[in-house]
TrEMBL record:
<keyword id="KW-1003">Cell membrane</keyword>
<dbReference type="Pfam" id="PF07690">
    <property type="entry name" value="MFS_1"/>
</dbReference>
<feature type="transmembrane region" description="Helical">
    <location>
        <begin position="157"/>
        <end position="181"/>
    </location>
</feature>
<keyword id="KW-0813">Transport</keyword>
<keyword id="KW-0812">Transmembrane</keyword>
<feature type="transmembrane region" description="Helical">
    <location>
        <begin position="73"/>
        <end position="92"/>
    </location>
</feature>
<feature type="transmembrane region" description="Helical">
    <location>
        <begin position="459"/>
        <end position="484"/>
    </location>
</feature>
<feature type="transmembrane region" description="Helical">
    <location>
        <begin position="261"/>
        <end position="286"/>
    </location>
</feature>
<dbReference type="InterPro" id="IPR020846">
    <property type="entry name" value="MFS_dom"/>
</dbReference>
<feature type="transmembrane region" description="Helical">
    <location>
        <begin position="298"/>
        <end position="319"/>
    </location>
</feature>
<feature type="transmembrane region" description="Helical">
    <location>
        <begin position="43"/>
        <end position="61"/>
    </location>
</feature>
<feature type="transmembrane region" description="Helical">
    <location>
        <begin position="224"/>
        <end position="241"/>
    </location>
</feature>
<keyword id="KW-1133">Transmembrane helix</keyword>
<feature type="transmembrane region" description="Helical">
    <location>
        <begin position="326"/>
        <end position="343"/>
    </location>
</feature>
<keyword id="KW-0472">Membrane</keyword>
<dbReference type="InterPro" id="IPR036259">
    <property type="entry name" value="MFS_trans_sf"/>
</dbReference>
<feature type="transmembrane region" description="Helical">
    <location>
        <begin position="349"/>
        <end position="371"/>
    </location>
</feature>
Length: 502
């Protein structure tokens, strides 16, 4: 196919938009908090609900693409995402913003598995496929890097909603380019979409995620947590059982007999769980602790994301030297070291001392996610590419949502426990978050405002240290898991590799 690299470009552009959308949100949170008066709980929901909706629907949408055509689903999703972005930009209250983020999640769920399954069906030669997945992963990492810069430029001149409007022209490019160059592909033997399975997967995922989110706030013994958690696990168990009874299941459970598939899914989930808090952590640290502008904060994070793109491109060549398990483990270990360094950050920062850790961590992200994504696609049949990509993306989004919820709660809880309010300062808003402290300080006399902000910055720094240290330990453990789980997986996985080897 002579235009397959153009197909990759369209898939990468759509992926770039989705990762950009996540990062600009984190950068906009401080301004959004002040303008809409969002509480810390609402802020977590604004960040999390997009991932919850996405994770709950990915399996269904991936299968839908296999049935109605991946190109068709991608174009429908692009149009819906652009529309939902405009609604998000003009949301007047936290509640309506949360609702608009749900719509974005639904639209995003149609795009993510479509892009990866299109890559899988266009690139059939193993070496080219790995390289294409590396470029695709690199563009996703580049979106995380460019997002803060674009967001910073917009926030320096416009209101917070402008960071969502940037999605509209990009989605127009995806629509026009997709119509012109993308081939249509689908599973010609797919049966009807099993609606009970779709409902079970969505309800089970959302219930489990909600339970874990509430456990981070209320504790494991809270009645709501126990009921929702048990119900979600039961629904997912019923979903898995139903898949073994269907001639055309949403998820072919036999894929999990392939060690490369299962180890890659689990590793991706745990790794993104650990690293998702980094974006939120740095957005607050650079702006509210160091006092940098949104643009400065975005530019500061640019090398890390661009390094991720470099790592994605280099991963294919490195597989031939140290194997798939070695590349993933190396990438995660590099990130563990970077987060260990982040646990030493102070109230003052020498940027050139931070830069090497960001670059090392970024390259490591590119290594790990490129190889894991290629493992998942290579071990699934082409006709089920959408379903396989959906499983991978579900793990990714689920891990991201859980990371923001749980590690974000660790950060907030440590902040609150370390915050010592100055005498005579009423601190309900300040205790909510460091952004709340900034808002409270604006209404105080200069001396009290200065004392409050010093206390808030020190408390936030304590939370950052704990969160970074926990993340470092988790990443190191996942690196070992990847090394063991991917041991013996071939450096080049052929088409329809047998389960014993893949």
């Amino acid at each position: 196919m002579t235009n397959k690299w153009w197909c990759l470009a369209i898939a990468c552009l759509a992926t770039l938009l989705l990762s950009l959308d996540l990062t600009v949100l984190h950068l906009a949170l401080p301004r959004l908090t002040a303008d809409l008066g969002a509480s810390s709980t609402q802020l977590l929901w604004i960040g999390d609900v997009y991932g919850f909706a996405l994770a709950g629907l990915l399996v269904t949408m991936g299968n839908l693409g296999d049935r109605i055509g991946r190109k068709r689903l991608l174009l429908i999703g692009a149009a819906a995402f652009g529309t939902a972005s405009a609604l998000t930009a003009y949301a007047p209250t936290p509640e309506l913003l949360i609702a608009a983020r749900v719509l974005l999640g639904v639209a995003g769920a149609t795009i993510m598995p479509s892009t990866l399954s299109i890559v899988r069906n266009v690139f059939t030669e193993p070496g080219e496929r790995t390289a294409a997945v590396g470029i695709w992963s690199g563009m996703s990492a580049a979106g995380f890097a460019v997002g803060p810069v674009v967001g910073g430029l917009l926030l320096d001149h416009f209101w917070w909603g402008s960071v969502f409007l940037i999605n509209v022209p990009i989605m127009l490019l995806v629509l026009v380019g997709g119509v012109i160059v993308l081939p249509e592909s689908s599973n010609p033997d797919a049966g009807r979409l099993d609606l009970p399975s779709a409902a079970l997967s969505m309800a089970g995922v959302i219930a489990v995620v909600w339970a874990i989110k509430e456990a981070a706030h209320e504790g494991l013994g809270h009645a709501n947590v126990l009921v929702a958690g048990a119900g979600g696990v039961a629904l997912l168990g019923l979903f898995a059982w139903r898949q073994t009874r269907l001639p055309e299941p949403l998820i072919d459970v036999r894929l999990f007999a392939r060690r490369a598939f299962t180890a890659s899914i689990v590793t991706n989930l745990l790794a993104i769980f650990a690293m998702s808090a980094m974006l939120l952590m740095f957005a607050w640290y650079l702006q509210l602790v160091l006092g940098w502008t949104p643009l400065q904060a975005g530019l500061a994070q640019l090398p890390g994301g661009l390094s991720g793109a470099v790592g994605g491109v280099l991963a294919a060549g490195l597989i031939r030297r140290i194997g798939r398990g070695g590349v993933v483990a190396l990438g995660l270990a590099m990130n563990a070291g970077a987060f260990l360094y982040y646990s030493t950050l102070d109230l003052e920062l020498t940027y050139m001392a931070l830069l090497p850790a960001m670059v090392i961590g970024g390259v490591g992200i590119g290594f790990a996610f490129t190889v894991n994504n290629d493992n998942v696609l290579a071990t699934a049949p082409k006709e089920r590419a959408g379903a396989a990509a959906a499983v991978s993306e579900t793990a990714f989004e689920l891990g991201a949502a859980l990371g923001i919820a749980i590690l974000g709660t660790v950060l907030t809880s440590t902040y609150r426990s370390h915050l010592e309010l100055p005498a005579g300062v009423a601190g309900e808003a300040a205790r909510e978050s460091i952004a709340g402290a900034v808002h409270a300080a604006a209404a105080l006399p200069a001396e009290q405002a200065g004392a409050l902000m010093r206390a808030a910055r020190e408390a936030f720094l304590a939370g950052l240290h704990v969160t970074a240290l926990v993340t470092s330990v988790l990443l190191a453990a996942v690196a070992v898991l990847a090394l063991v789980g991917l041991r013996g997986v071939p450096k080049e996985i052929p088409e329809d590799a047998p389960a014993a080897h893949a």
